[in-house]
Design brief:
Two copies of one chain form a homodimer. Chain A is an alpha+beta fold. Chain A has 14 helices and 22 strands. In chain A, strands 3, 15, 16, 17, 18, 19, 20, 21 and 22 form a nine-stranded antiparallel β-sheet that branches. In chain A, a hairpin with an 8-residue loop joins strand 18 and strand 19. At the A-B interface, helix 11 and strand 13 of A face helix 11 and strand 13 of B.
């Protein structure tokens, strides 16, 4: 794989990270045994796979479902790939190979491959409607193909994806045809294809697609959803480099920004950096819920106005929370500031994880912060982007743990794992033990240190007011923090042990004072976890909490290690991600105290 | 004055801020009675004023001194202007008027006015050597003229400055003549002239001068000092928008960056923002001393390499520390992040203030962090930029206290004062009581609140681990912090009182682990103050400190309120800014514990 530009912080590839975490180990295991299998069954049951068979001429009939349904199949394949990197699974690999065979059969002679257009429209309709997700499907095919190649070494899907990418590239571009992707995804996927193939034209095409935006090329194309939403719906109202406020459809927005980061990092390009910083402030300080959820409105699946963050009608699409991880991870690579990893942590343990049930088989598309008792998890959706998004996201959390930049190693997430990377020419191997998110103790063991002498950057989580660090049993006093990272320089050698103790206590959070929905209310957090009150534990459900002297206790009826909070009036709060897994009822994050 | 672009946070003009601070009141008073008078005497005694008389043909003889000496006169005039805004003073105003008369007489028919070139060279030598500070002198004339107009309403010096600026503008520019200022200053001064006159051509000229840099126009011009230093010495090695690492002469660097901020803020221009952020990281995280001092090398009065921060040979020019205030104040306006105000605080109480003696009459050009006993304050320098820099800086600290952006008010420095500003169309008046830097209690009184309902942003100093806020006697629990500011939204009305209590304790600081000079050492701070060990208090001068159970005590032989630190072994540490004011001896900031 081509080396990224050296100014862009790189995560350690997933196949070099083995997650060995009590918490995430269970979540990933549940994903493999639950989510992935459920999504495989549903993709087959709901005609998604049959569409490919029909497009290949191996089954009669027309297209069934939504025009973007191919993408679900690719996302499941990508999820299988990550799962295989974590743990071999003969069934999953066989199933993926089968699917790839079917997909590849459906590819047209010229490389084109979107089932809806092959089955339902004339050939000349291809690339005639920028909203119709052809590029979106291609993007997910590319991501799946690259992941599957890394997981198995098999290149069949990659060849299919390259042929389709080349077909797409031959139909858009300067002097060929305007193109503004209606649902961004192809941009970041082309970056991955460039990294895989080292063909710079994919990177340039990605940049060209970003540049087309906001220049009038999307006018009248239908990419803006309802006409009254205008071009902001698809981030087509201003050129990328001028963007300042997060607007429109939330998932589209963060997928675009992710690609803008990649282009900035890989080409050492200044152009989008000011916009990215402004957009991040806009997203995080003015349009994000405490859970990490973004996009408050169901209407446009996106943003309304600054500080408009209602709790009951909060849309907070699961895909958008996961997209925030994609974007923030890349921001972290660009700016090496732990505040981006803080947002990732917020999503990991709250807004993204809440999207899947504890058994991995039911999903939230929408993640409100208050429920009157009628909002519940579902096994599948007509538009099932969120379940399949989770399928590929959960098994890939390992890539957010570490980052390497120049001669410095960054520890971003305290997820127990073993990893291998290189600093300069030297192999570095580390093992992290952690009991996050319920306990704040971590132990990092140096398994192989190369020449030592590199800086180890430990993220001090934003919620942690006190911490202790010991190196080989001795308290580390030389504490210097830069951009939220404690920087340890030491002649590291095999056998060194860095012990971390982050004080993990209950902390009371308030909203920005302009969020009128939460005036006078508090939310309780403990470490990285946002807590909520669920009716099943609180029959009175008075949405009040007595914050003085709250007790923490482990609970048997929730997954191992879950700490619940109990106040003096015996009100019980549980982690937000775990809600709606028991008896149905009301729920609230923001409470009166 | 033309309104700045509304995306650029504005400080409240100095004449709308009255400093009423115990600490700064005394410093400003000492500046008025000591520094300004001393500088007036020295400018007259050292021929600086006589040069103007000779240039006017009113005194015989040639030029005396250094070619850039005019600038000292302007800086003193600017200091007088700020001092008059703080407090009327008939003597100072009369003196300034006299000087302005003399200066104006020296102006040539065509508007040109640099004594050295008028007296010593042929007319055709003007603007022939970019290093020779003609534009630097013009810049300081502009800054003085604008300040004096604001202080007194008198426009004579402004007319002189405009005529000279127009002369300069007629000789440089596209198709007229290349120009790369050897010592940046004109760029930020032209911005002030634009704000004063509303003539956009001054702003455009400033931007043009910034753009010329790093494009080869400075090659062979002599602006780079010693040939072996190369173009980085005058920040002429790469175009401004590509800059990443702080390099070369420290004062030149930060003056340039200040202008880059202004252009970015006033023209809502993205171009320099990525460079500014990179340069700030480079400056603050890799090239700044704990005192805020920058530029470690005497050789180039500037930077060597990252983390090369020797203590004894630290150059840390006073002007560079003050330039850091200029730059960081503008960064704060651009990004509304308190980390910039934190740097200003660091400079105010340490690296800048150390440049002047407690009686205001002796100066440090160089501010090392260790002295073997031979480094002492001096009344004047052959190159006396630092004393005159202090002359204009100290009386102007009031402008760093508050900032307004859109409908939000920012309190950046806890310097007791009264101020008046507008939010929208409404007059806002506030009074701040504070005992900084020695005590952490502050009280902000609302004198006039307009329609109320605006957000009050209180900087939480980086060193403060615990604080309390009360509004009208009631603890304020609705705490939400964004970019280091506690955001209070309230229907503010006359008579409201906001009480702040910042826990001000001793804190132990370590260097970045790559600063080899400080490995294993600590520096002690208390609140914003860096402390040092001076031989006069510590005859043994063992450069050690016992950090456990240190005591704080007020001391009579140092200015009122000074808290010194005493350890168990009776070692005494005093604030760094106050060193070398008593018996001569050794001094050290970094100590072994």
């Amino acid at each position: 794989m081509k080396k990224l530009h050296d100014k862009y912080g790189m995560s350690i590839p997933l196949h070099k990270v083995k997650v060995m975490d009590r918490f995430w180990g269970q979540v990933i295991d549940t994903s493999r045994k639950g989510t992935i299998l459920a999504c495989i069954v549903n993709c087959e049951k709901t005609e998604r796979m049959n569409n490919f068979k029909r497009a290949a001429g191996k089954m009669p009939g027309g297209f069934q479902g939504n025009y973007y349904d191919d993408s679900d199949v690719y996302k499941v394949l990508e999820g299988i790939a990550y799962s295989l990197m974590n743990e071999p699974d003969a069934y999953l690999e066989k199933k993926a190979d089968e699917w790839i065979e079917i997909i590849s059969d459906a590819q047209q002679e010229d490389g084109y491959l979107v089932c809806y257009f092959i089955l339902e429209t004339n050939q000349e309709k291809r690339y005639s409607d920028m909203e119709r997700h052809e590029d979106y499907c291609l993007g997910h095919m590319i991501e799946a193909a690259v992941a599957y190649r890394h997981a198995t070494g098999k290149t069949k899907l990659l060849e299919t994806a390259v042929a389709f990418a080349d077909h797409f590239a031959a139909h858009v571009g300067d002097g060929i045809g305007d193109w503004v992707p209606g649902h961004q995804e192809i941009e970041l996927a082309l970056v991955k294809l460039y990294q895989e193939t080292e063909k710079e034209e994919y990177l340039r095409l990605s940049q060209w697609l970003i540049e087309e935006r906001g220049r009038g090329h999307g006018v009248g194309s239908g990419i803006w959803g309802k006409p009254e939403w205008g071009p902001a719906y698809a981030q087509d109202d201003v050129p990328a480099y001028r963007m300042a406020d997060i607007k429109g459809h939330a998932v589209r927005a963060v997928f675009l920004y992710s690609a803008m980061c990649d282009i900035s990092g890989l080409l050492d390009e200044n152009r989008y950096l000011p916009a990215l910083l402004r957009l991040w402030d806009s997203a995080v300080y003015r349009n994000m819920y405490i859970t990490g959820g973004i996009g408050s409105s169901k209407e446009n699946e996106g943003f309304t106005g600054d500080y408009d963050l209602p709790n009951e009608t909060a849309y907070c699409e699961t895909c958008a929370a996961i997209g925030m991880v994609f974007w923030n991870h890349r921001m972290n690579g660009l700016f090496l500031d732990s505040k981006y990893a803080d947002v990732i942590e917020r999503e990991l343990y709250n807004g993204a994880l809440s999207g899947v049930s504890l058994d991995g088989r039911k999903f939230f598309y929408v993640n409100p912060l208050y429920s009157d008792g009628t909002h519940h998890r579902t096994e599948w959706y007509d538009c099932s982007c969120c379940p399949t998004q989770l399928t590929r996201f959960i098994p890939s959390v390992g890539q957010y743990i570490y980052m390497v930049h120049a001669d410095e190693l960054y520890l971003n997430q305290y997820i127990a794992s073993e990893m291998e990377t290189k600093i300069g020419e030297h192999v570095i191997r580390m093992k992290l033990e952690s009991e996050f998110p319920y306990k704040g103790g971590c132990k990092l063991r140096v398994l192989e240190a190369g020449q030592g002498g590199f800086v180890l950057n430990l993220r001090i989580p934003w919620w942690c007011k006190e911490y202790k660090v010991r190196v080989n049993g001795v308290e580390w006093s030389d504490s210097y923090i830069e951009k939220g990272y404690l920087k340890l320089l030491h002649p590291w050698k095999e056998g060194d042990v860095i012990e971390l103790e982050f004080q993990m206590t209950i902390h009371i959070q308030r909203s920005h004072p302009k969020v009128l929905h939460n005036v006078g209310k508090v939310a309780l957090m403990r470490g990285p976890l946002v807590y909520c009150m669920e009716e099943v534990d609180n029959k009175a459900f008075d949405q009040r909490v007595d914050v003085e002297g709250m007790k923490e206790e482990e609970r048997g009826d929730l997954p191992a290690g879950v700490v619940v909070l109990r106040d003096h009036q015996d009100r019980i709060l549980i982690p937000y991600y775990a809600w709606d897994n028991r008896e149905k009822g009301r729920m609230s994050v923001w409470l009166t105290c």
